[in-house]
What we know:
Elements: H1 4-13, H2 31-47, E1 53-54, E2 60-64, E3 75-80, E4 95-97, E5 105-106, E6 114-115, E7 131-133, H3 142-160, E8 169-174, H4 188-191, E9 195-202, E10 206-211, E11 213-222, H5 238-247, E12 265-273, E13 277-286, H6 289-309, E14 314-323, H7 327-331, H8 335-346, E15 352-356, H9 361-367, E16 374-380, E17 388-390, H10 391-409
Parallel strand pairs: 3-8, 3-9, 9-16, 10-15
Antiparallel strand pairs: 1-2, 2-8, 4-7, 5-6, 7-17, 10-16, 11-13, 11-14, 12-13, 16-17
Helix pairs in contact: 1-3, 3-10, 5-6, 8-10
Bound molecules: zinc ion.
Zinc ion (ZN) binds at residues 80, 143-144, 177, 200.
Amino acid sequence: MSNERLLERFLRYVQVDTTAREGTDAYPSSPGQLELGRLLRDELLAMGLADAVQSPFGIVMATVPGNVPHRAPTVAFNAHLDTSPETTGANVRPQVVRGYQGGEIPLPGDSTKRITVDANPELGALVGKTIITTDGTTLLGADDKAGVAVIMEAAEQLLEQSHLARGGVRIVFTCDEEIGHGVDHVDLEQLGARAAYTLDGSGAGEIDIETFSADLAVVTVRGVNIHPSIAKGRMVNAIRVAADFVERLPREHASPETTDGRDGFLHPYVVEGKVEEVNLRIILRDFDTAVLAERAETLREAARQSMAAFAGSAIDIRINPQYRNMADGLKREPRAVEFARQAMLRLGREPKMSIIRGGTDGSRFTELGLPTPNLSTGEHNPHSPLEWTCLEEMADAVAVLLELAQLWAEETGE
Ligand SMILES: [Zn+2]
């Protein structure tokens, strides 16, 4: 099957600016997400998926109805419509490199930027393929419009190839994943799936089966402000207290800049304030959920020491849970990962199980009772003007979804 329709879809979806905006109460956070969602709903309707809907929150759902005589479990495919606020997603001008020759890829809109093989060793295996980049002035939005295009193409191919057995396949597109709100307005009962797959992974052939567990610590440091001229013995400078507090936090083997693999960390990433009060935001991350409590205790111990060193200061720490490692939830429905593995094996590929030092919508879905591993969909260098994707890797992901639909259709029951 030619990949031209998949390419055409992807190039069309990235034209819509769906940059997520932080610091707004609106949901979704940007009107472009509603626009892209409408476009997708209309395309799904045009394919013949009569139940395609967009909720007032911009969540798009549709069903590819099953075609097997028995009752097979329903499976869902998910991608997110928004793109990262870290790099602009307005006026994306994609560059399509057909028959990639190897070597570096210059970006036509910014002569200082190029995609090099040094920084992207995976390009070495993609000679002859179709690579899509930006012009260097925006992100591409393959995160996650590659996933969106893959799911749309898989839906159309399932309908065209009606000889392929399938149980019910649900499609769900979410909003504001990049700012941590992808799952806020998804009704899992309405979705009605036994398992789901996020199409939001890098490269090809990977199945992400673990994510971090994550808490956010909001720290308030209170001092006492008074005019510096009469401050002796009376002023308590919250800025100095906060500096002392941060200095007490372990850095070696405990910060993002000193860890990788399975090691977690605590990471102060926002500090703002004045003499009277300083506010800090610190993220706590670990693959072992129980360790998050130990990291919180590390913060409390540092706070006690700083308060002792600065009489009259007060440090308040509030811990907010963010998301949990999906590994535990996935164990409750082993078929979710096993069928993804089998789908790749059936296509003659060696699946690679991997872990993410972060979270996905699937972390939250899994925590809420819907087991949701993450699959490769051809993303590279997300959130950056150096972002790129490979058409053949996206086509690969479509093929995996077709196999998955068939594997689940062989099952009986809910
Ligand atoms: Zn993503």
